[in-house]
Amino acid sequence: MIEPTPDGRFGEFGGRFVPETLIPACEELEVAFREAWADPTFVDDFHRVLRDYGGRPSPLTECFRLSKQLGCRVLLKREDLNHTGSHKINNVIGQALLAQRMGKTRLVAETGAGQHGVATATAAALLDMDCKVYMGAVDVKRQSLNVFRMQLLGAEVEAVKSGSQTLKDAVNEALRDWVATLEGTHYCLGTVMGPHPYPWMVRTFHHVIGDEANEQCLALTGTDPDVVVACIGGGSNAAGIFSGFASSESRLVGVEPAGGAAVGRGVPGVVHGMNSYLMQDEVGQVQEAKSISAGLDYPGVGPEHAFLASIGRAEYPSVNDQEVIEAFQLLSRTEGIIPALETAHAIAWVVREAKNLQGQTVLINLSGRGDKDVDQMMEILNVDRVV
Amino acid sequence: MTGPFEEALREKRALGKKLLVVYVTGGFENWEASVEAAAAAGADAIEIGIPFSDPVMDGPVIQQASQIALDRGTTPLSVLQAAADLDTGIPHAVMTYYNLAHNPGHERFAASLVRAGISAAILPDLPYVESAPWREVAAKAGIETVMLAAPTTPDHRLGDLCAAAHGFVYAVGLLGVTGERSALADTATKIAARCKAVTDKPVLVGVGIGSPAQAVEACTVADGVIIGSALVRQMLDGHGAAGVGQLVSSYRAALDEG
Q: Which fold has domain B23-257?
């Protein structure tokens, strides 16, 4: 994958479409990130924290039962085993260390399912920083466990009641906070979206997923996987694993929810600081994304994914909620791994496409664990709590 | 190019007047009457807001008014069609977010403004560094593009930014989103002074002006002020065009007295 142009473009996508007030902050962040990433002390520190605190490297698990059932060799990159239960910690540790290096004392973040919020609250606790997390009021309701987790970790959680009250509105509110608090605050953006340098910086912090997976696949199978699959909301876990295979022959597949298919159903638009595929109505009002998983309910997608789609390097199919519910249960029963509902989108695509993947090796980024989704699944499956 | 919007402001400034530009959320109930009342009460120009789903530069008051307008079925077309019928005798600008210009394409959007009798555009999420493609198309169509200068804008960019601005330079008074504040931020007069030092275009302070006294204070340095949330609050609170007219009169009187 490529470094963006000096004006933050991947092809025609990307850029820095934020109020003038934030432009100097984005420039300052870019300079600080370039300096830090060229400084071996910072990079060593980043990898040390990911190892000793985050639990990296995450293992590669071969799914023997599922492979037999599907007829293709399924490998899982186990980001669910990271501290806080998802890949999100990689980016958050990177940004929090960077913020500290820049002299910032406070982190603000947006969150959808709560995974990025929990990760940010965790990093803030670790590095003794203040933390405020914006979460759509609708998401607060469907992910109450994660709200309490963030509070336990010392973060303040604000339920955002504007607009559609989901992830996109949480981003708006975090941006509004940042505009007003620039001096001491870093906006710890949770995915590969937003104004330059965020899409590139966040992908760089997640590069470790792809690097490890590449080595692990080689050690296990002697070659690259035929297909690399990840779910896509903004696209950070996909960007991380894709970056380990972009220069290989592997097919790259990013799976979107049917109700939030920015690449599949969107057209280029500008919101949240970037030009990218965006679900919008016929005049340009941003539409609400709706799926079973709060973490993928984002109407846009990272600009680098828009670019990869436009040049045909990666493909972005979608799966519906019913397929996701089935995949969630399938992985739980066949492999003893309960995936996050977000991650279950990637599995659902493999299940649906299995007939066309016979004999192939399929690497799935298991981006998060599903503990947070168990309550919601009980409701969906109509299961009564056994007292 | 000095277009009609900037020309009107320059003429009034030359007469020794302080400039008063007011913002009205298009598509809100009876917003046309509020525009007319503001003009009758002495506003020098009107910003017509085209509501957007994700108004990232706006505080709670304008967010709420925008949402109400959107819920009523307001579209860019409905606002512009109504704007075309407004005859206030003062220039009109639109204030909206860039995606509503990007979606139809720059040429079509600029043409739709021209048809509605609009002479200037303010796009707060299209910063100077990203604005060249739009400015070029807008200028060809005769639309003046206002540039926003922020307290954080570095000196090395401020000159170019002001040079690229048409209509006026919008000096953002504070670090934050639109909305009234209890006191004028120090940053307001500072950014106005920095702009005035590099341009002879009208420099108006907006964001954070909460009272006529604060407007007067800002105008010790600036050429004028933009009043948005205070006015929209009148509309939200149900005071309608009468409330808007009264509010604008109070600012006008304070600015004229100095």
A: TIM Barrel (3.20.20)
